[in-house]
Structure formats: structure tokens, C-alpha cells
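dumping the sequnces here before i forget
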Amino acid sequence: MSTAVSPLAPKSYPDLPAIEGVSFATAEAGIKYKNRTDVLLVGLAEGTTVAGVFTRSKCPSAAVDWCREALAGGAARGLLVNSGNANAFTGKKGRETVRLSADHAAKALGVPAETIFLASTGVIGEPLPAEKFAGVLDDAAARLADGPWLDAAKAIMTTDTFPKVATRTVELDGVAVTLNGIAKGAGMIAPDMATMLSFVFTDAPIAAPVLQALLGKGVAGSFNAITVDSDTSTSDTLLLFATGAAAARGAAPIETIEDARLAAFDAALADLLRDLAHQVVRDGEGARKFVAVTVTGATSDGSAKRIALSIANSPLVKTAIAGEDANWGRIVMAVGKAGEPADRDRLAIWFGDTQVAAEGERVPDYSEAAASAAMREEEIAVRVDLGLGDGSATVWTCDLTKDYVAINGDYRS
Amino acid sequence: MSTAVSPLAPKSYPDLPAIEGVSFATAEAGIKYKNRTDVLLVGLAEGTTVAGVFTRSKCPSAAVDWCREALAGGAARGLLVNSGNANAFTGKKGRETVRLSADHAAKALGVPAETIFLASTGVIGEPLPAEKFAGVLDDAAARLADGPWLDAAKAIMTTDTFPKVATRTVELDGVAVTLNGIAKGAGMIAPDMATMLSFVFTDAPIAAPVLQALLGKGVAGSFNAITVDSDTSTSDTLLLFATGAAAARGAAPIETIEDARLAAFDAALADLLRDLAHQVVRDGEGARKFVAVTVTGATSDGSAKRIALSIANSPLVKTAIAGEDANWGRIVMAVGKAGEPADRDRLAIWFGDTQVAAEGERVPDYSEAAASAAMREEEIAVRVDLGLGDGSATVWTCDLTKDYVAINGDYRS
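..and the predicted 3d for all of it:
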């Protein structure tokens, strides 16, 4: 099993500023990993609103069930995340563990258990020993601080080879508001969504229903447009917390989605989510290539996205990319199997800037050398035009390498 | 790229008897491969009926288009198969090539071109040089013989590591009738169907519409219940030819699907198709394990099959099996992502005879040693009971190994 940092990792990490109302600490509970942090405890100021998007798995983890219930309250005072054990498919014990974990965190933070949000990631089916939290949470609560954010991102990693952070700043009523996000995820990544945890924090004063609407929009072009292996986790969780602290500095609270002042925040959130989602793909297990698959000319945007995902999830396409092989025949195969409207004799295909197929056959002056050169790049753009309509979509994925098999062939042992 | 024979290959091949009305020859046209046969020409007696099932790809190969048209006639006098080039996504040239190939074969066999069936498999998107057939088909037609069938199976191989043959004999009106089948396929194997070619021949006298009905039934539990990598080829073709020669020996023609005399033939055909389909899985690219996934207790048979395919297609399940890891958490994940009715807290899971989960959690006396022992076997049975209804289904697949990535990372080069 390779433990080297992904070659697609960012060359440097941004410096994340403090966010008023958010403080956190990490700890080593020794749940599965030794000699590394595996717990993140976050304290949130009174008045913090929250929105969430979760896995669509029919077998969600106990923590996901808990968060869905807690979300109904719309208020958040704390977040507890552990890595190494997903507390998924653990039956009644899992529900008890979630309750105990929330109680521990609530007591440590001095807030109601119903305002604690929980996320667990790691092995499925193993009972999570909640008692391991008992010792570390009181200590962590005593150490809450407004940084460093990279430590928070590190504590939630499992098979990730690098921590994932992003930050954006926008103006709201002339006041600077900040968005900080962290994420983890490397395998079992597919819409909707992934073994993917992501937590975004802002000091903007935004009501919970508005936050939820923004998050639902933002996720479509980010976490729901990436795939590593088509597998969907039982634990996927994306939470957005807004402390509202910027209100004291003059940013008036936003109560409706129609508020024109939202535009900049909305764009920044979408951009930050896409940034984090791309980092997850860049850390795809065994990944050596970052691939953008764009489909245009489809009968609808939805159809374009389904075709793009069919391409991005195809093991034959992904192994060809791993082999730096401009095998556009497999792109045709993946278009054909998507079950969406497509006309073989109108298809056009590009690798990078090199068009390899037009009107259903190889272009006459096709340059294998140019196509091969495009495939040797670390970032590869695959584009398909269907010639049928105006629908388009882009999804992001990585290649399928021997390391993916190695990493996942003995993950549990 | 590994060229060793799959460890899951049959230990011996059955001896296939001659079938009255079927004669064939193989040839070396040098389309892609050197020093091996890559063409199979089959002559069929007058009166031969035919049925076919093809890929559901929206971008089928030119040969598939041709066969669909030819099938409407219901009569077959010849079959031409080449390996090394799929003549798929070759535009107008592809259609001309198909026409030229059929003309060549028709001339060589002395029959109408409209009764010639065609199949091509191999690289997609490269023009197939039809002129390469010109020389070899006349010669092949002069060498037509009623065996050996293993040679026919070898000529149609691409990345296959062993030829696939099967035979069955049943009585019809007290007369022995024979079914012989050959198949090829190793990757791009998924319902519905696979880069899979299979040709079945019988001397039973059965009308074309009846043949078609039998084939449709037989394919559901065989070629449409296997998956290697979830990818669906543009060229999948399964053809069933019935020469009717047994009529002269006293087997009265079968004109309707209600004919009670069909029962034995129907069962034998289904069994032969399943045999061939299993051989395709056993030759799955890089496969080291033959895996049967059975889902019971689903709300319907269709729901059970969709869940079984979600498990069988999951890269994380398949890599765990490659790693001999009894990772039942990934089975839960795959059940959850199928989108079919499932209740986490009713799930039961077995590896072989070892139950690992019951009522949504690990069984109390779970034996890792027993589960691990089951995973070390060459043939692995995964069973999931949903506890919801009476729906059930079994699908067959193989593991996902580093060799799959190696084989597909540089196939074209």
C-alpha cells in the first residue's frame, strides 16, 4: 500500500484565517490509528445556523441519521468528527454510540446534545467504542482555539494522502466575511456523494433555510459532480455552519434566498466547494491523473451529466487514461452504454485540444502523437459533443491504477 | 500484460460433436494479430433459422446494425467473424466494410449476402480493412469441415486467455439433437451484454420466432447476469442457429413456443448459455476469483438483480475480494447505493457458509477466521438477504486485480 502523497496534491496550502465564533481542537483517541490525531471537536457560538447534505445511501450510518434529526432544529453549537471507524452498520449499538458521543461532546462544550453534529468515517461494521471519547473531549474542550485549520483537516483524514482546506473572503454590506472549508475523502467517491466529509464555516449571518438552499445549489457542481470509483459511502456528510458573528460588525442578517446581497457569497461558496471537491479527486486512491470530462450537445443538462458520469466511471476509460492511451473507442463505448440519447454518427471527441473523432469516425488528419501528448499531461480534459442539443455538464474524476487495487485490496487488514 | 491462462479456466475442454448442416473453417487474415487465426467462416445448410440478441449500446457497431437487419429475414446461410478489429465507430466506411465483408462471404459460400451474419470484435474506431478478407474467404470456403470446434472458438478470441466451448444433447421426438456453443469475451463485460460474442448451433428444427423467444429467456439468467467491469460493448452479439437437420431423422418441426416438446431443449439451451457465460467471467481480465452474488428477500426479482449487480460492479467490493478480505462493510455500501428498497437493520450477509452480519450488525459469534478462509477459495459465494420480500437473483462476476489495470492500461498499444 502506497503511503506517498498524491502527485496531484496542491503544491502549497492556503493560510486559513480565524472565523469569529468557531473554535476547535484535535485529539488522539486511538480509535484505529496510532500516533496521529483522529478526533476533531469544534465549538460554535450561540446563534450558529446550519445546513447539511448527506449520502443518499439506503443504508446510512448512525451519525448521518443523527445529523438529519439535529438539522431539523436549524441550530448548531458543536461538531464532533472521528476518523478510523465509520460507526456504520452497527445496529442498535451504533445508535447508542451516537447518543453517547453527542452527550460526551455536549458535556465537554456545555451545550445541549441536540445541537451537536456528528460525523464518523473509516471502517464500516465495526462497533465504535464511544468510551474512547470520554477522556479526550474534556481535554480538547479546554484547548479550543481558532487555528490552525490544517490540524483540523488532518484529524479527519483516513486514506487521504493530504489534508484538504480552502478559504474565500467576500464582502457583505461592506464587511469582510470569511468562508473556511475542510474535507476528507479519497475512495468510495461518487455522487451522491462519497466517503466524503466536508465542513464549511462562515461568520456570515444567514438563516438556516437560506443556507440550505445555497448548499443544495453549490453541491450540484462540486461534490455531486465528482467520482473516483462510482461507489457511494454510507457516511457522506457536508455541513455548512454560519456563526453570524459578522452581524456585530455591520452585516445585516440574510433571511431569504431572494436577498440580492447573497450573490457574492453564493459564488464564493460554490467556488470553495468546487475547490474542495477537486482536492478530493486529486487524492483519489492511486490517482495519477486529474480528469475533467465535459459533455456538450446533449438533449438536456441532466442527460449530459449522466453521459459524463458514464465516461468518468468506466473502468476501461479510467485504465486507458492510467496507461496514457488516447483510446477514444472506449469513450464511444461509455457514451453508448449510458442509455441516453446519442447518435453514433454525430459524435465528436477531443483529448485536450486534439480532436480525435468527428461525425462518428476518426478525423482524417488525426494525430496520434498530439493525442498521446495530451494523455501524458497530469491534467487531462476529455470532451464529447453529441450534436443533438444544448445540454452540457462537466464532471471530474481520476484514473484507475494498480495502486487503487493495492490500496483497496487490503484496507481493512 | 499477463498472457498466462486464467487460473479459473476449465481444466479440460469437452469434445464437441459435429452438427449436421454446420461446417466451418478458420483463417489468418492478419487484421491485427500475427501468427494466429483471426477469421471464422461458417456455412449453414439451407433452411437454417436464426435468432439473435445484441448490445443495448446507443452506439452499436456496424456489424450489429447489419445483423439486426439480416435477422428480420429469419434465415441464415453463413456467419463471418473476425477478431482484432471491432469495426465499431467507423462511420460510413464501417457500413461499406460490412457490406463488402458480407459480399465476400456470400460469394465464397455461394449464398445471398442477406443471409450472411457478421460479427467483429477488437479495437474500436480503427477502420477494418475488408480487402483482407478477399483472399482468405474463398480458401476457407474450400476447407469447410464439421470440426474441430475448439479451432472455431480460438479464432474469435481477443484478450481471452482460453477458448470457450460447451455442448449439450437432448432428445426431441426420440431423436438426439445437439447444441454446440462457442463464446469469446474477457473485458467490457456487463449486461446488457458484454464485448461478448457467442454463437450457438443446433440441428433441432425450430422456427425462427420460437428460437428468438427461447434465446430471450435463456439470456436473462446467463449473459445478462454476468459482469466483469460494468462496461458494455458496442459489439455484443449472441446468435442461435438451427439447421433443422434433425427433422430428416424424425424430429418434427417446432412451430410455436407452446410446443410441450420444447421443455428439454429449453433447459439445455439455458444450461449451455449459463456455462458459456460463466466461462466468460472465469476469463475476466485479471480475474483470480469466480464470485456468485445472490440476493434474496428483495421486494422483487428485478430489485434483487439490481442490488446484486450493484455489489458485483462495485470496485471496492471487487478489490476487497482480490485482497481476500471479508469486508462485508463494502457489501452494505453497495446495497445502500443501489437505490432499491433496503432496510439497514434487517440485512444479513454471508461469505460462503459463514454468516457475518444479521439484523444490521455483525453477528455476535462472527468468526474472522472462517470468513477469511471462505475468501481464500477460488470460488466465492456472497449472499445477502434483505428480509423484505420474496425477490431473488444471482449474478456472477470476478475480482478486480492489478492485472485488470495492466491489461487495460495498454491494450491498444
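Confidence is low (pLDDT under 50) at residues 189-194 of chain A.
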